[in-house]
Write a structure and sequence with these properties.
alpha+beta; 7-stranded mixed β-sheet; 10 helices; binds adenosine-5'-diphosphate; binds magnesium ion
Amino acid sequence: MSEFSLIERFCHGIGQVQDSTIIGVGDDAAVVSVASDSQLAISVDTMVEGVHFLPDSDPADLAHKLLAVNLSDMAAMGAEPKWATLALTLPDSNTQWLAAFSGSLDLVAKRFGLQLIGGDTTRGPLTLTLNIMGLLPKSKALSRSGASVGDAVFVSNVLGDAALALNFLQGRVTLTESQALAVMPALNRPEPQVPLGRGLLDLASACLDVSDGVVADLSHMARLSGVSIELDVADIPLSEVYQDYLAHGGSLDLALTGGDDYQLVFAVPKGLERSVKDLARRLKLSISRVGQVVKQSDELVKLSLNGSAFQLGNVQGYQHFT
Ligand code: ADP
Ligand code: MG
């Protein structure tokens, strides 16, 4: 199939059409309108076969995850996702693969009100890059740098299931069939917390999404905010499967440093904790308090368990270059 017909067949009409899109797929560049009381949030994430996903992964899962990791960045800023461009590097033009990828991309994009407005298609080792753009009310963006001493720290849903699923696939963790089935969506089809991010715009002093493990990610928040963050590891929310893994000799390391969680972790000034509870109820979401912001010291993230220091058995967070 030619590059032109591939784009025509699999990259046109993906996602939800926006009134503010002036020119979409098909021209030299896309053109969009942005109202003067809005700001653009822009982010890009790449997934490389063999690095971010296992060879022969399900193309529908890959499309979901590619969108989810980028949508999660919008969520972390409190932005409303609007547009995306897609750079596809493919080893060949397998139409079955492309149809599954494109169908899943369309479904998830529509669900989050996102439109695919352009991209690039090349041949090479399977590499998926999505550039995402969203809108924010002027000067309202949630940043990593706003946490203050005294703020409470919260996290959405549960941590560690994606890392548990990956370690199961790699044969390093044993799970029953039903347990494996229960944690696999956390790895392959994470749900980006876009509505939560929007709801935190007038509430959180700092926010980020957990992609490299909550300890590594919170250390970024602490460094950029000029504070330290105390985490009580007993308060880290865990799924039933993870709790069972712990009860059978598993460790908390996967939940603390495993990564790929795509939950939001955020700081909230004293006095607004009630509003967090209300927001959780309104969004039918579980939100747990996991720690507090303290004066900066040598240790950016201090882990404790029932009042005494807690040691990680592992290196902190995934890094591509060490
Ligand atoms: P150019 O030569 O200007 O780079 P291309 O031939 O690469 O243009 O692309 C033609 C049109 O198709 C452009 O509008 C581009 O944005 C779009 N396009 C190419 N690849 C993709 C893709 N993977 N997803 C979405 N749009 C794409
Ligand atoms: Mg091109």
